[in-house]
Design a protein that fits this description.
The termini are far apart. The chain has a nine-stranded mixed β-sheet. It is an alpha/beta fold. Helix content is about 35%, strand content about 20%.
Length: about 240
């Protein structure tokens, strides 16, 4: 299974991967909503919440199983907000996620959890909440394929973007350059066309957007707009004008 970093090199010059969050799709018409964006979106983002680590409940491995059966070749980006993650990884790994992301705050054994995911041949990701310093990730960045920076407090869709989280993205981009790491930098929370350029200019490779996409009459057009803005952000990032 290809890792996320390999996929970004096959994007025909696109400057960002868009991963629409199914948390904001119509639960009774999810297949219809996916069909609206399937040709535009490289990934599908699936949020799993346990009502304990985050104050909400959402979905489980059965939805991942159904998605994999219906879309066998789609890149399914699974983010589990559960505590402890080691109690849940096995049931999700069994349903073949394309990448499985866990929270550093949810376990004292994050290194072991990431090892267990990689042992199953699945790319692994690590995430941190807005109040968690990026420095906690430095000891494990060499072993991850993706780093997810939460730009809202996780648990609910439709929240406002927290701009201070962009400093973490810049730090991760610099660490990647100086240490020759291969992880992708993902951001999730309050993302839409209005801040796509800003996020990409700081170093984001993957943007998760939910209500900004599925809450509009033409969600595919929103993704196209985000891509245009992402290209501007990439040019700004190249110049170092953050």
């Amino acid at each position: 299974m290809a890792g996320p970093f390999q996929i970004i090199n096959e994007m025909e010059g696109r400057s960002v991967i868009i991963s629409p969050s199914l948390l904001s799709a119509d639960v009774l018409n999810m297949e219809r909503d996916i069909e609206k964006i399937e040709r535009e979106a490289e990934w599908l983002h699936l949020d799993i919440m346990d009502g304990h680590f985050v104050p909400n409940l959402s979905y489980g491995p059965s939805l991942l199983k159904a998605l994999r059966k219906r879309y066998p070749d789609k890149f399914i980006d699974v983010h589990i907000m559960v505590e402890p993650p080691e109690a849940f990884t096995g049931m999700f790994l069994a349903e073949r996620p394309s990448v499985l992301t866990v929270h550093a705050e949810a376990t004292p054994h994050i290194h072991r959890v990431l090892q267990s995911i990689r042992h199953e041949g699945v790319p692994c990701g690590v995430s941190i909440n807005p109040g968690t310093p990026v420095e906690v990730l430095y000891p494990i960045l060499h072993m991850v394929d993706l780093v997810l920076i939460m730009s809202v407090n996780p648990g609910y869709g439709g929240q406002s973007f927290i701009p201070e989280t962009l400093k973490k993205v810049s730090a991760l981009a610099e660490w990647r350059r100086t240490n020759e790491c291969g992880y992708l930098i993902q951001m999730d929370g309050g993302i839409g066309p209005d801040n796509t350029e800003l996020a990409v200019s700081h170093g984001c490779d993957v943007l998760v957007a939910g209500s900004a996409i599925f809450g509009k009459p033409d969600p595919a057009a929103v993704i196209r707009e985000m891509r245009v803005n992402a290209e501007r952000g990439r040019q700004v990032g190249k110049k170092g004008n953050l």
